[in-house]
Design brief:
The chain crosses the membrane at residues 21-42. It holds the Pfam family DUF6776. The protein has 2 domains: 1-114; 121-250, G protein-activated inward rectifier potassium channel 1 (Immunoglobulin-like, Sandwich). Helix content is 44%, strand content 26%. The chain contains 2 helices and 8 strands; from the N terminus they run αββββββββα. It is rod-shaped.
Length: 267
C-alpha cells in the first residue's frame, strides 16, 4: 500500500506538471486553425468578385460578338440580294435597249415605206449623221442608203447633197465640193454606207442638208428621183428621226468593190 500510494502521488504530480502545457498547445492549435480558416475565408471572399466580374465581362463580350455576327450575316445577305438585283436590272436594261433599237429600225423602215415620195425605186436614205472628226476643224458625214424592195440585182445611182446654212444671217447653200467632200456613186443590193469628211467655212452655220437620190435606169428598174431633208438636230443625234445609222462593222463581202458599202444577208 505504501508503494501504491507513492506511485499515485507521483502520477498526480506529473499530471499537474504537464496539464498547463497541454492546454496551451491545444489552445495554440485551435487559434492557428481559426486563423487559417479566417484567412481562407477572407481570401476567397476577396477573389470571388473578381472572378464574377471576369465571367460577366466575357459573357457580355460573347453576346456582343454574337450580335455583330448576326448583323454581319444580315448585311452580307442584303449585299448579295442587291448584287443579284443589279445584275438582273442590267440584263433587263440591255434587253430593253436592244428591243428599242429594233423597234426604231422597224419604225424607220415602215415610215420610209409609207412615204413613197422619199424613195426612188425603193432606194431611200435610212439615216444621215454628222459627227466630229479627229482632224481639227473637220467633221465626218455618214449616209446610210437602204433598199426597200427585194431585188436579185444591185441598184445603182448617185446621191446629191446640198448644205443649207447661214452666213452673216443670210441663207446660203453649199455643195459637197465647196466643203472639200465627195460621195461615191452607190451600187448595192440591201444597204450601203457612204462617208466623207467635210470642212465647213468658219462663218457658215449649217441648218439643213437637202438630199437628192438619183437611181440610174437598169435592166430591172426605171430611172427615178427622190428628195429628202435632214435638219441639224437629226444630223447631230438630238433626235432619232428619220432612223438609226447602221454601223459599218456589219460589213459582208458580197460587194468588195465598194469600199464603204455595207450589205445585209436576208437574201
Amino acid at each position: 500500500m505504501a508503494n501504491y500510494q507513492r506511485w499515485l502521488d507521483r502520477l498526480q504530480v506529473m499530471e499537474r506538471k504537464f496539464r498547463p502545457s497541454s492546454w496551451y498547445l491545444f489552445l495554440l492549435m485551435l487559434v492557428a486553425f481559426l486563423l487559417g480558416a479566417l484567412s481562407y475565408h477572407l481570401t476567397l471572399s476577396m477573389e470571388q468578385p473578381v472572378l464574377n466580374l471576369g465571367g460577366g465581362r466575357a459573357k457580355l463580350l460573347a453576346e456582343e460578338l454574337k450580335t455583330q455576327n448576326q448583323l454581319l450575316a444580315s448585311r452580307n445577305l442584303e449585299l448579295a440580294v442587291e448584287k443579284e438585283a443589279n445584275v438582273q436590272m442590267q440584263a433587263m436594261f440591255t434587253e430593253q435597249a436592244a428591243k428599242q433599237r429594233e423597234l426604231e429600225r422597224e419604225l424607220a423602215f415602215y415610215r420610209a415605206v409609207m412615204a413613197p415620195n422619199e424613195n426612188a425605186e425603193g432606194v431611200t436614205i435610212h439615216g444621215m449623221e454628222l459627227t466630229a472628226s479627229p482632224v481639227e476643224g473637220q467633221q465626218r458625214l455618214k449616209v446610210v442608203l437602204t433598199q426597200l424592195q427585194k431585188r436579185r440585182q444591185n441598184i445603182k445611182g448617185s446621191l446629191e447633197l446640198t448644205l443649207v446654212g447661214l452666213v452673216d444671217n443670210k441663207l446660203t447653200s453649199l455643195q459637197l465640193k465647196d466643203v472639200g467632200a465627195k460621195l461615191d456613186n452607190f451600187d448595192f443590193r440591201y444597204f450601203q454606207v457612204l462617208e466623207t469628211p467635210v470642212t465647213f467655212p468658219a462663218e457658215f452655220q449649217l441648218t439643213t442638208i437637202k438630199a437628192k437620190i438619183r437611181v440610174t435606169k437598169g435592166r430591172y428598174n426605171q430611172a427615178a428621183l427622190a428628195e429628202q431633208e435632214f435638219s441639224l438636230p437629226m444630223l447631230t443625234g438630238e433626235t432619232k428621226e428619220p432612223g438609226i445609222i447602221l454601223e459599218q462593222n456589219s460589213q459582208v463581202t458580197d460587194n468588195s468593190g465598194q469600199q464603204s458599202e455595207v450589205r445585209g444577208s436576208n437574201d
